[in-house]
Amino acid sequence: KTTNFSILSQKTFYIQLKLYICCVTIIYVKGEVGAFMQKLKIFSFCVALSSVFFITYAHAASTCDYETQINLQKEAQSVNVSQEIEWIPSGEYSEDGGEYQDPLITVTVYNLTENIYAVVRNVNTNDTETFYYEKTDNGTFTFQNDNGYELGKYEVIIYSDHNDCLDEEYRRISVTTPRYNSLSQFPFCYDLDEYYCQEFVDFDMNLSLSEAEELASEKRKELEEQEQRQEENKKNGFIIVLVSAIVLIIVGVTITVMIRSKRSDRK
Question: Which of 29, 110, 170, 265 is most buried (most C-beta within 10 Å)?
């Protein structure tokens, strides 16, 4: 495989940087002798030279025509990722004979095509695995984090498999697989939906058992107070409705009596 475009771009940057340093050095050496306009001409020439070099070098880095690059970009953008968590037998047993279960996270990558391939890099270990379309199930493949007790961090890097621009990078997808949160199994987390009580979390949580229990206790107290306020609001609302109804009845009766009294006076 040839060197990919990101590496070529990085080299281009370093070469440009060297050109700028060279220009600054020349201007500095001219120092007292060179006039301002002379320095400006030298600097302008260096900028133009480095720009021409960048355009030439970048063009050499990509051999695909514009239309092909656009199509490859679209195909790379159509790649999607999903995750699934399941519990599998661990092979270890408790004292009562029950088998323990371990979490397994499966990542599925969709929509790979014959023109692109994917490199999956484990950020934690720097291990990589390459998936060409031929190795997939109609463009779909999976990889797994079999240690569901730790966060898994991956990069799915999409490269061109087109003959005209082989190995050019077109997209990077960051994937974080969640880890099992052992705090979720404790009674204080029952029926609580707070982050420290989630069964799986996708972030590092430096929270001790006592701290989590204290937070849960405070949350339950807050929920109880909220429930009490809601009950009081309901009672107050009922009283308001009742009083309003009584007032309406009294007003209605009063109006009716007055109307009848006026009719009696006319007779």
Answer: 170
Nearest to 27 by CA among 15, 18, 36, 14: 36
Distance of CA 247 to the CA centre of its chain: 58
Least Cα distance to 19 among 55, 50, 45 occurs for 50
- Who's near 79: CB < 8 A, 6+ residues apart? 109, 110, 111, 112, 116, 118, 156, 158, 171, 173
pTM of the full predicted structure? 0.63
Residue 5: name the closest of 124, 211, 158 by CA.
Answer: 158
Task: Please state the separation of Cα 112 from the chain's center in Å.
Answer: 21
More confident position, 96 or 75:
75
Please state, in angstroms and rounded to a whole number, the distance separating the CA atoms of residues 5 and 129: 19
The per-residue pLDDT for range 101-111, each reduced to its tens digit, is 999 999 999 99
Angle at 121 between CA 120 and CA 127, to 5 degrees: 120
One-letter identity of residue 85: I
Q: How far apart are CA 249 and CA 118, in angstroms?
A: 77
CA distance to 235, 250, 253, 260, per residue, from 240 (Å): 9, 15, 20, 30
CB 139 within 8 A of CB 111: yes
Q: Return d(Cα 90, Cα 98) in angstroms, integer.
A: 11
Bin 190: left if φ > 0, else alpha if -120 < ψ < 50, else beta. beta
CA distance 119 to 116: 10
- How does pLDDT run across 236-257, given as a tens digit for each residue? 776 777 777 788 888 777 887 7
